[in-house]
Amino acid sequence: MSATVVELLARMIQNECVNDGTPDSGHEHRSVETLAGYFGRSGTVVEPHPGRQSVVYRVPGTSAEAPTLMLMGHLDVVPVQASGWSRDPFGGEQVDGFVWGRGAVDMLNQTAAMAAAFKPYLTGEAPPLEGDLVFLGVADEENGGQLGADWILRHHPELVACDYLLTEIASPSFRSEAGPAVPVTVAEKGPGWRTIEAHGVPGHASQPHGTSNALTTAADVITRLAATPTPVHISDEWRAFVAGLPIDAALASRLLDPDAVDSAIEDLAATDPGFARWAHACTHLTLTPTTLRAGQKSNVVPDTAVADIDVRKLPGQDEAAVDDHFRKALGPDLYEELDVEVKFPFPANASPAEGPLWDAIAASIADLTGGFPLPALIPVTTDARFFRARGVVAYGVGLFDDQVSFGDLLSMFHGNDERVSEESVRLTTELLAAVVARFGRAE
C-alpha cells in the first residue's frame, strides 16, 4: 500500500493544480481523473466552473441509523516561486525517502492517504461499515471554497451529507514521557480578509508637489498596519493545547499569560522559529498585507490603489474587533478615507474533543504509537468550517516520523522546498485506516 499511496501523491503534485484565486486556475479536473484511475471507477463529479472539479464517492453502510463519516482532502495548491526551490516544485520527485513538491504537506499527502484508506471499502476488499463512508476530493480550498466545499454545500448538500469529518491539518507529534502527543486539529481561526482601496487625483508624475497620490496613501496604510501590534487573546483552545505540550512549566505559564506571551514567543524563536510563528498566530489577531496594485503608467499619479490584507480571527474575536483594530492602527481620519471590503467573513470554529470519532482517534493513536491525542487550535482556515457550521464534528490528524520537526513542517506550508517523508505518508494512511475501521464498527 505504501508504494501505491506515495505514487498517488507524486502524481497529484505533478498535476499542478495551482489555484491563484482566479476562476480559470486550479485545474482540479486533472486530479479528479487521477483519482478515478486510482479507484478504478469514476465518482460523482461537481463542476461549477470549467475545470474546477470536485469528486464524491460514497459507500453505503449497513445501517441507516449509523452516523456517516467523510474523508475530505482538497486537490488544489497555492502558487509557487520556483527560484526559491531546491527541486522542481511540480516534479513529485522521490529522493532519499522524501516526496518533494507543492502540496506535499498542504494537503496532498493527507488527500492521498485518505484515498488509500477509503479504497478497500469502495472496491469491496473491506466489508462496509455500519454507516456510510464518503470520500470527497474537493476544489478551491485555497481560495475560500467558493468553487468547492462552499458551493457544493449550497447547491448539492445531499452529496456530502455526513455527521463526522476527517480533513486537515496534520502535523508532527511532540515527544513526552507519556508517549507521543499527536496534534489533532479541533479548532481553527476564522477568516475576514480585507480589500482596501485608497483614492487620489490623477496628474502628471513630473509635478508631484501637492498631489493626492493613492499609492502613497496605500503604502502608509500598509506601514501603519505592519507597525501596530495586534491584540492578544488566550482562548480555551490554546490553553488545552499548551496544557498537553511537553514543555517547561514556566514557559507554559508564559504562553498562557497575555502580558508575557510575546516575550515567550521571542524566546521560542531563538531555537524554533516555525513553532514561534505558530504560537504567535494562535494567540493574536493577525493582519498580513499580501498584495498591492496601483497605477496605469509610470508618469501618471495613480488615482486608486488596492491592497489585500489577510485577516485571521481567534475564537472570541469578531469582525467588530477587526474594525476596531484597523481604526486604532490607521487613525479614524485615514480609516474613513478608505473603501474597505470584507471578504470571506467567517467566525473561528471548533469541534469538541469528545465523542465516537475522537475516541476512535485516541484508541488508534494509542495502538499505533503508544501516545495520545493533543487537541489543537490551528491559525489557518480550512473547509471544515463549512461543515462545522452545519453541525458536523470535524478533525484533522495524521502521523509523521521524526525526520521533520513540528516547527520545520509548519514552515513548509505555502513555503519553499515543501516535502514529506514516504514513511509519514505510510503512517498517516495506517492511522486513517485504523480510525475509519474503529469508528465504523463502534459498539
Shape: globular
Strand-pairing-aware structural class = alpha+beta
> What's the rounded overall pLDDT mean?
95
Largest sheet: spatial strand order: 1-2-6-3-7-16
Please tally the helical runs, counting DSSP H or I stretches of 4 or more residues: 15
Structural description of this entry:
With 443 residues, this protein is α+β, with helices and mostly antiparallel strands. The chain contains 15 helices and 17 strands. Helix 1 packs across helix 3 (108-123), helix 3 packs across helix 15 (422-440) and helix 8 runs antiparallel to helix 9 (273-281). The longest helix is centred in the last third of the chain and has 19 residues, at 422-440. It is globular and about 75 Å long. The model has no long low-confidence stretch (mean pLDDT 95).
Could you name the key traits of this structure?
20% strand, single chain, six-stranded mixed beta sheet, five-stranded antiparallel beta sheet, 443 residues, 35% helix, globular
